[in-house]
Amino acid sequence: MKKIVLTTSMSGLGGTENATFRLGRLLRQRGHEVVLASSDGPLIKEAQALGIQWRPIDFYQGGILGYIKGMFAYMKMLKQEKPDIIHCQMARIVPACAIAAKISSPKTKVFYHARGLDAETYPKIAKLFDKLGVYIIGNCRHEQEKLIRHGFPANRITYTYNALHKADYVPEKTAKDYVMLGTLSRLDTVRAVHVMLDIFKKMVDRNMPVRLNVAGIGEEMDNLKAQAKRLGIDDKVTFLGGVRDLTGYFKDVDILVNTPHCIGDHGAGVGNNILEAGLYDTPVVTYNMGGISEMVITGETGYCFPFGEDEAFIEAVDQLIKQPELREKMGKALHKHVETLCSDDEIYRTTMAAYDM
Fold this sequence. Notes:
- It comes from Neisseria macacae ATCC 33926.
- Keywords: Transferase.
- This is Glycosyl transferase.
- This protein has about 350 residues and is α/β, with parallel strands linked by helices.
- The chain folds into 2 domains: about 5-160, Glycogen Phosphorylase B (Rossmann fold), CATH 3.40.50.2000; about 180-340, Rossmann fold (3-Layer(aba) Sandwich).
- The protein has helices at about 15-30, 45-50, 65-80, 95-105, 120-130, 140-150, 195-205, 220-230, 245-250, 270-280, 310-320, 325-340, 345-355; strands spanning about 5-10, 35-40, 55, 85-90, 110-115, 135-140, 155-160, 180-185, 210-215, 235-240, 255-260, 285, 300-305.
- The protein has a 7-stranded parallel beta sheet, sandwiched between helices. A 6-stranded parallel beta sheet has the order 10-9-8-11-12-13, sandwiched between helices.
- The longest helix has 19 residues, at about 65-80.
């Protein structure tokens, strides 16, 4: 068994925080000693209840001085813990963690879990992390290939998908005389829910029997509410805020819609929302980003289009509205595909294989 230090920010309920929590839970269940070195946040108590040790180290407060302070606290922690693995969940903290490990625990292997960067950052990260001797785990095959293309050594990088949410059960969809569309993401400009609101307006204007649930929190919340009102669709759009009860959310949502604005090397991964939709037998209509097309296979598990293809997006939703049996078929197909690639056994196998690189 290994001692593993997961290092990140845990300040919110976003994809990285949830993915870190789920990975820690899985590693702990398989008998490993897991330490979470992070800022405080809403998932910390749950992590501690699972037997995960928490070390309050925050690299994200106080600018450069706060970063240096965090590095010294990390060095002190490493001298005490002497872990086998440091698994960083964010890029910014990697240099501090790698330097701290070289000084305080030189036998410890340092990993960066690549979850997406600004496009112009990839060449810099590939070069710097190579020099630091860091290993990389991409959160999809696309992310692995991207970093290799930018010069990172192929023998020090692999990929594994995110560990999954534990579904209580798969509920029957709520019967209603309309189809509920749903978004599930952080409300920021990259996730681009504002694009979905514009598309939804076109659907409403075409008298498609749809409503929209917007789940998530973020800096764009007020702008999105104002946009919905300006477009005259606020009576058909409900802002749910942060959602923890995914079973209840997907009981009401018939189709997950997803419109991230990520072109070229921007963005990475599949997105927890896509994986969660699969767990709850819910088909997905989405713009492509990173590795989404590795899960959402057009015509089989949903529909995946290049960014900006609004008409194709609307047509796909319309097909699913008119054919409830197709919704059910695609939802179950996505469930099977997600479970095959993201089961606990598969995530554990690929993570352990990565640690043994």
